[in-house]
Amino acid sequence: MTIEQLAEATKLTRKTLSDFENGKTTPQPRTIRDIVVALEQFGVEFIAAGELSPGGGVGVRLRLPTKK
Q1: What is the pLDDT of residue 64?
Q2: pTM of whole model > 0.85?
Q3: What gap in Å lies between CA 10 and CA 31, rounded to an integer?
Q4: What does the pLDDT read at residue 63?
Q5: Which positions ≥6 away from 28 have C-beta within 8 Å?
Q6: Distance of CA 4 to CAs 15, 26, 50, 51, 67, Å?
Q7: What is the distance in angstroms between the CA of the first residue and the CA of the last residue of the chain?
Q8: What is the pLDDT of residue 55?
């Protein structure tokens, strides 16, 4: 996923996303949800603490492609 794809999927500008990434501005909760949804649509999985194993920490991974 490119920043252009994320910008298009979230209806945000590249500059806005860059400002979030660089800590220049802070996104609102609704914007964070929009970014999460867009990332999930591109195959990103967010893992909660302990979700996969007891004592496991939070994480992010790419979902495996589905077999056809």
Answers
A1: 80
A2: no
A3: 8
A4: 87
A5: none
A6: 10, 20, 33, 31, 28
A7: 22
A8: 82
Residue written as token pair 């999927």:
9
Tokens at 10, concatenated = 């979230």
- CB burial of residue 60 (10 Å; 0-12, 13-18, 19+): exposed
Residue 62, classed as helix, strand or coil, is strand
pLDDT tens sequence for the chain (68 residues) = 899 999 999 999 999 999 999 999 999 999 999 999 999 999 999 998 888 777 888 899 898 877 76
**Token couple for 33:** 């949800």
Strands 44-47 vs 59-62: parallel, antiparallel or unpaired: antiparallel
Report the alpha-carbon angle 2-29-34, nearest 5.
35
